[in-house]
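Milestone 3.1: sequence recovery, worked example.
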């Protein structure tokens, strides 16, 4: 498998979409290099079970692939990387999302699309189903963490991914400030070359 063959599967976070800033930055980076067909950014169901079924289908149909997950997408990417032996870059990932979402309101609307839906309490159990208690191949994971994350406690990911490749930036935000500057690092780690 050469670096010219690997595609990137971008996994957005909870209540987000392919319209998020990082997703659009990644798409544009590939498009600008004439490689737009090598990035996959699905719009995921808010149901964890359905979202993971979507992601499993994308992996099955993509050929060689690496993962980039943000927030809840980082949680999903961790499970997928372990079960499919894939490389994954994780941006301010959620470690125990069922705890974070325990107080989620019943009625929600997607940040980007405005689509409304009802948060189902059963989704918390679905999330627990995808917990990885022991990371078997930490060398396959790259953690990109900023301590200014206003949504998640960065200590959780810092401890959980301690044996992985890690970058800790002081300050920043949950959205991960200046993400575009890290795109070359993400692609190099994932074994993706966009040379034309």
């Amino acid at each position: 498998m050469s670096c010219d063959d690997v595609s990137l599967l971008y996994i957005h976070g909870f209540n987000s979409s392919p319209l998020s800033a990082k997703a659009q930055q990644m798409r544009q980076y590939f498009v600008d290099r004439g490689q737009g067909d090598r990035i996959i950014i699905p719009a995921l169901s808010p149901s964890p079970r359905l979202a993971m079924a979507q992601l499993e289908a994308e992996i099955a149909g993509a050929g060689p692939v690496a993962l980039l997950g943000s927030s809840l997408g980082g949680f999903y990417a961790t499970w997928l990387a372990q079960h499919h032996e894939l490389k994954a870059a994780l941006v301010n990932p959620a470690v125990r999302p069922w705890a974070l979402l325990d107080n989620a309101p019943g009625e929600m609307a997607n940040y980007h699309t405005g689509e409304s839906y009802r948060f189902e309490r059963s989704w918390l159990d679905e999330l627990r189903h995808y917990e990885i208690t022991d990371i078997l191949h930490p060398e396959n994971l790259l953690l990109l963490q900023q301590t200014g994350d206003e949504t998640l406690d960065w200590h959780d990911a810092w401890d959980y991914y301690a044996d992985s490749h890690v970058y800790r930036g002081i300050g920043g935000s949950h959205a991960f400030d200046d993400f575009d500057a890290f795109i070359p690092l993400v692609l190099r780690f994932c074994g993706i070359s966009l040379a034309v």
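The longest helix spans residues 48-62. The CA atoms of residues 27 and 39 lie 7 Å apart.
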